[in-house]
């Protein structure tokens, strides 16, 4: 590994240099912050571990074959191509040094760092298994493009295997789909898996009837869509039940394995449900970068790992660091796209005020969130919408959902192709993205093993360098050998 370099220190750096804004994350918070700084007299570096801006609310449509990855995950580099003051860097941030004002990252085996004057941290959240991380192997969550492709292949793979198996019990297990978590993502997934089984795949198998698949939506809470209130939650529940989805509430998952799940009911009894395909959408945990920031400052984190920020979204004692979106905790604001978008724009605006208008951080107005409402689809032609006291369900809500999601998709071309894909889906439940591969199911696990080995090699090499020995090449060579082994 080479000495960490600063990717900002190029010959092209203007002298005297401009105010440097580093943004971590290309999700809603990070991207909107960068775009809001377009005309500002600053240099923006946006770093993210993924090269795309992911529209997470439509991930379930990739997982169930309606939309392609490209439609919901355009490359960030191309989105910001015409923004001259912005550069995009692909890298995994592993350390933020608030004293040195430096962000340390790696891109593969290359380590580099970025200096900042202002930092906007928008690294989002990961799936949470509430301390049972071993569930993940059998019940993947849905936070990334990889998750959606893996789930799509797992879902379709179950139908394929059910077609060729003779054992009736195993066939039933393969045709049982469990979605854990009855929030918006769980409801959307349950509705789409049911539609896939009953409509899209109809008449396409010879030995099984895909419509006989059992789709179970399960939650430890007593309600469907709790944040939407009773009326809309019940409407969503009724619609799902009409589609044949089994709803099991007050059901706590106590174990997940290859064969199925173990559930504890309110009376304390424990039962098993055999199912090959399990999907986890039950909770989130903020990026570990939040904890790292809290350890270096007077900030605290909550149980979900979110950073308790000041009213101006900054960290105590560090007005130059903003934390926005799913990583921040302020006034019980929910982890939704609008909180991240508005937070990102707000942080950008404060930086502009201070760099260009000479204002001081003490003059910042508190962040005010404008709640534009929440919505979730249940099935084709059916959604729920809550805007203040207005609650709508059914077709009109679905049309509203459609318009809002189209409006927030990035890029004109993506809107057009998405509209076309939706048209095909509405017209005849045609889904054009039903490709599945074994690699999407298994490769991630292999890659994670390789990455862990590689990270260990980098650590060993760094240690050797610090100690003045030359173990670096030996360690890398050794790990490279082991990597090859593990991939095989
Ligand atoms: C399946 C699903 C459905 C959803 N549906 C809705 C919905 O219908 N409506 C709604 O309002 N909200 C919805 N949400 C929530 C919404 O998507 C999030 O609130 C929003 O994406 C948060 O934005 P963010 O910028 O904080 O984080 P994210 O959008 O998650 O972006 C995080 C970014 O940080 C990067 N990153 C993370 N760690 C590192 C690191 N160490 N180094 C470098 N980069 C890093 C990631 O690559 C990513 O680019 C949904 C979420 C999911 C998962």
UniProtKB/TrEMBL annotation:
<dbReference type="InterPro" id="IPR023753">
    <property type="entry name" value="FAD/NAD-binding_dom"/>
</dbReference>
<feature type="compositionally biased region" description="Low complexity">
    <location>
        <begin position="469"/>
        <end position="480"/>
    </location>
</feature>
<keyword id="KW-1133">Transmembrane helix</keyword>
<dbReference type="GO" id="GO:0016491">
    <property type="term" value="F:oxidoreductase activity"/>
</dbReference>
<keyword id="KW-0520">NAD</keyword>
<dbReference type="InterPro" id="IPR036188">
    <property type="entry name" value="FAD/NAD-bd_sf"/>
</dbReference>
<keyword id="KW-0560">Oxidoreductase</keyword>
<dbReference type="InterPro" id="IPR045024">
    <property type="entry name" value="NDH-2"/>
</dbReference>
<protein>
    <recommendedName>
        <fullName>NADH:ubiquinone reductase (non-electrogenic)</fullName>
        <ecNumber>1.6.5.9</ecNumber>
    </recommendedName>
</protein>
<keyword id="KW-0472">Membrane</keyword>
<keyword id="KW-0812">Transmembrane</keyword>
<feature type="transmembrane region" description="Helical">
    <location>
        <begin position="392"/>
        <end position="412"/>
    </location>
</feature>
<feature type="region of interest" description="Disordered">
    <location>
        <begin position="458"/>
        <end position="488"/>
    </location>
</feature>
<comment type="similarity">
    <text>Belongs to the NADH dehydrogenase family.</text>
</comment>
<dbReference type="Pfam" id="PF07992">
    <property type="entry name" value="Pyr_redox_2"/>
</dbReference>
<keyword id="KW-0274">FAD</keyword>
<keyword id="KW-0285">Flavoprotein</keyword>
<feature type="domain" description="FAD/NAD(P)-binding">
    <location>
        <begin position="20"/>
        <end position="344"/>
    </location>
</feature>
